[in-house]
């Protein structure tokens, strides 16, 4: 996989209330050379985003306290993080869910369960390009 070389050092946050999803995403991303930040819900994520400024954020939709739509909207409303790509993660693949994700500013929609390739392709398509 050629683009995997470009992922070294990319800071990726995975927000998901499922420990299994967080861990599998972390394993795939670390193998590709990414720095990984994990958060179990929107509140946890918002605190960490301010401290760590990830390059790309994966956000589950169905979470307790603050769902993925609300979390994405809050990230996109903040001028400091508006340009940070947010990729929604969901087991729901309906048109309505995708449209709602776009309405709150998400940049892409990835259906769970995701594969290693689909996850890394999503990162590669939004990864900051190294300065030549």
What can you see in these coordinates?
The chain is of the alpha/beta class and 132 residues long. The protein has one domain (2-124): Rossmann fold. It is 41% helix and 18% strand. The chain is built from 5 helices and 5 strands, in the order βαβαβαβαβα. Strand 3, helix 3 (68-77) and strand 4 form a beta-alpha-beta unit. It is globular. The model has no long low-confidence stretch (mean pLDDT 92).
Nutshell version of this structure?
This protein is α/β, with parallel strands linked by helices and 132 residues long. The protein has helices at 19-31, 42-52, 68-77, 95-103, 116-126; strands at 11-15, 35-39, 56-60, 86-90, 108-111.
Features:
single chain, five-stranded parallel β-sheet, 5 strands, alpha/beta, Rossmann fold, globular, about 130 residues
User: What is the end-to-end distance?
Assistant: 21 Å
SSE order, one letter for each helix or strand: EHEHEHEHEH
Q: What is the helical fraction, as a range of percent? A: 40-55%
Number of helices: 5
Q: Largest sheet, order of strands side by side? A: 2-1-3-4-5
Shape: globular
């Amino acid at each position: 996989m050629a683009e995997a070389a470009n992922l070294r050092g990319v800071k990726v946050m995975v927000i998901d209330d499922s420990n299994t999803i967080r861990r599998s995403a972390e394993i795939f991303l670390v193998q590709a050379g990414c720095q990984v930040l994990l958060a179990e819900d929107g509140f946890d994520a918002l605190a960490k985003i301010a401290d760590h400024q990830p390059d790309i954020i994966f956000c589950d939709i169905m979470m307790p306290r603050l769902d993925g739509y609300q979390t994405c909207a809050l990230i996109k409303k903040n001028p400091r993080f508006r340009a940070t790509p947010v990729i929604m993660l969901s087991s729901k693949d309906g048109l309505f869910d995708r449209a709602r994700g776009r309405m709150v500013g998400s940049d892409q929609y990835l259906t769970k369960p995701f594969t290693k390739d689909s996850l890394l392709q999503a990162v590669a398509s939004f990864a900051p390009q190294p300065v030549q």
